[in-house]
Amino acid sequence: MAFHWQTFKTRSLTAIVFVMVMLFGLLWNRWSFFILFSIVHSGAWIEYQRLISRINKEYATISLLHCYGILFGGWCLLLFFTNQELQLFGAHLTTIGWWLGLALLIILPLIILLQSFKSFFKEKQIFFNESTFDTSISWPIKLIPLMICTF
């Protein structure tokens, strides 16, 4: 296989620009670091969901609530792990991430449950089985003691 100088130049310049952007985001200040990781986090989840939907066709039919709920939940963890370093209007991002994540743990399964009941009454068939019902309802309850102990 022959060596293509044009491809090599293009990839080298792209790599240099990528390294410059990453170093800028990592080294400038804490906010640039947080914004960089927020962008990487969002892009990684979107790419993951795109790949999984190609592998498993059923995953392509998930609701937007599921799709963006996972993205938002991960971002709440990102906020929570800022370790009281960043503040927005006098409130620590750790506290904001904690309360948004806790609200998400409670509200998201309830909305999924309500959608299941809506589907049940609309189509006269059960949309979920016991395992999905147990998973969607009990996981926030199981995680609350862990979250209380860590806060």
Question: Gist?
Answer:
With 151 residues, this protein is mainly alpha-helical. Helices cover 78% and strands 3% of the residues. It contains 5 helices and 2 strands.
Task: Give an overview in words.
- With 151 residues, the chain is mainly α.
- The protein has a domain at 62-150.
- It has helices at residues 5-27, 30-55, 64-80, 93-123, 130-150; strands at residues 87-88, 91-92.
- Strands 1-2 form a two-stranded antiparallel sheet.
- Strand 1 (87-88) and strand 2 form a beta hairpin.
- Helix 1 (5-27) packs across helix 2, helix 2 packs antiparallel against helix 3 (64-80) and helix 3 runs antiparallel to helix 4.
- The radius of gyration is 21 Å and the shape is flat.
- The relative contact order is 0.07.
- Mean pLDDT is 78; it is low at 125-135.
